[in-house]
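Now for a concrete sample entry.
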Amino acid sequence: MTHCKPKINTYFALSLVVIILIGGLIYILHEFTNTRAFGLFFYLISAPLITVVTLMLLVKMMAGFKFISFGKEKIVTKYPLRGKTNLYNIEEILAWEEEKIIANKKEFRQITVAFSDKSSFTMSNHEHINYDEFVKYITKKAPKKKVKS
């Protein structure tokens, strides 16, 4: 079986951004308690805004942390943070779709696969290794299930 796992570089960069945001939030709260160099309105807007952005980024990282294995007419999805593993046969695929977006002269590709038990997963070429092999595999094994756009 071939494995698609998260790219370490992507999660390292996102973790650095989260650390910087948390550092900025700590600085703003420390600044508010000690010197109050800015107006109250600045603190009331910036602290919740940084908190929301940090939480959204953390949720995105946690939801996207999955391992996908494929081969032998099966697809296995593992979500270690949820403690959940699903095993699907190729026949259980209801539909799949690949989206392509070109931004800053780079191609961003994302595939979404929906299964008969009403679950689905999304995987992108920037966040997972062996993305191209998975697309070739699913194109070969389930070509009629592709969503026509």
